[in-house]
Amino acid sequence: MKRALPPLNALRAFEAAGRLGSFKDAAAELHVTHGAVSQQVRLLEAWLGAPLFERHNRRVELTPAAKAYLDEIGPMFEQLAQATARYGVAGRVPRTLTVNGVASFTLRWLVPRLARFRDAHPEIDVTLETSNEPLENLKETYDVIIRGGPDTFYGYTMRPFLSEERIPVCSPALLERIPLRTFDDLRQHTLLHTSSLPRLWPNWLTKVEMPALVPAANLTFDHFYLALQAAVDGIGIAMGPTALIADDLAAGRLVIPFDHPRLPSRSYCMYVPDAKSADELVITFCAWLEREGRDSSAFSMT
User: Fold this and answer.
1) Which of 20, 60, 136, 154 has the most CB atoms within 10 Å of its CB?
2) Cα 199 from Cα 196, distance rounded (Å)
3) Could you tell me if residue 3 is inside a domain?
4) Which runs of consecutive H residues, i.e. helices, occur in 139-193?
C-alpha cells in the first residue's frame, strides 16, 4: 500500500525551524537561505492543509497542533540519523568531500581539528588540498573552498565562520632570554615577517607610535605557518593571527607579550558552489566548521 508521505525536504525544514524556534537559525543549520526554509514550510503547510507556525514580527511560534506533530516526528529524525550513521560505517562505501583551504589556515587550524570531524562523521571521507590561489583562479571544482572574506563570487554561497585579529606572539623561552617589558624592548629582538603581508609589523609599530623602530634583526618567510613555527622555536617575534595561534596559546607554546593594540583582519569564509549547497555532506561539514569557528573565535578574541 502506498504511503502518504509529505515532501521530505519540507519536513526537514519544518523540523529544524520548529526545534530551533527560528527560520533564520534553521537556515544556518541547513546551510540554505531564510527564504528557502520559509518556502519549504509553506509547501508543507499546503500539503497538510493547515498552518504550522504563527508568524509574528520578528519570530515564529508553533501552533499547538504543530507542536504535537513536531514531538512525534522529532525523535524519528534522530533515529534516522543514527541508523544512517550505523549503516554508513558498516555497509556503505564512504562518500568523499573535497575541501580546498589556504595553506597556513589548513595546517595550523583545520588539520588539528579534523580528527573531531572524523569521530563525529566516520561515514564521510575528506580530501583536503591547499592553495593560496584566489577562488576564481582555481582550476578544479571543490565541495567547499575556504578563503578570506567576506567576498561575493557568482555561483557561490558564502558564509563567514571564523574571525581573527593579529598581534605579536613569541615563545616563553625567548622572553626568559631577552625580556620584553615595553615596546622599546623590541629593538633587542628579531621580528618575523610574512612576505605576502609585509605591512603587518609597520602597521602595528605605527599604532604604538614607534614607526621608526629598528629591531635587532628581521627574518621574512613566504607563509604564515613558517613565521609562526619560527616564533614557537624561539627565533623571534611574529605577528600572529589569533585564530591560528589559539592552540599554541592554550598549550603554552606561544605567549602574547602585548595584548594591545591588535590589527584587524578579514574573516575566514566558506564558499560553496550553488550546485553543492543542498548536498548533505557539504551541509554537515559547513555546520561543523561554524561550530568549531564559534568556539575558536570565542577563545582567540579574549
Assistant:
1) 60
2) 9
3) no
4) 172-177
CATH classification at residue 139: 3.40.190.10
Per-residue pLDDT tens for 64-119? 998 999 888 888 888 887 777 666 555 555 678 999 999 999 999 999 999 999 88
Cell numbers 564512504: residue: 94
- Distance of alpha carbon 70 from its chain centroid, rounded? 30
Dist. CA 280–CA 52, nearest whole Å: 25
**Which stretches within the chain are classed as H helix?**
8-20, 23-30, 34-48, 64-91, 103-105, 111-120, 172-177, 200-207, 224-232, 242-251, 280-300
145 and 194 in a single domain? The answer is: no
Report whether 169 contacts 246 (CB < 8 A). no
In a domain, 1, yes or no: no
Which grid coordinates are listed for 289?
A: 566548521
Q: What phi, psi does 207 have (nearest 5°)?
A: -65, -30
Helices (H) and strands (E) in the chain, counts: 11, 12
183 with 198, same domain: the answer is: yes
Q: Which residue has the cell 575556504?
A: 146
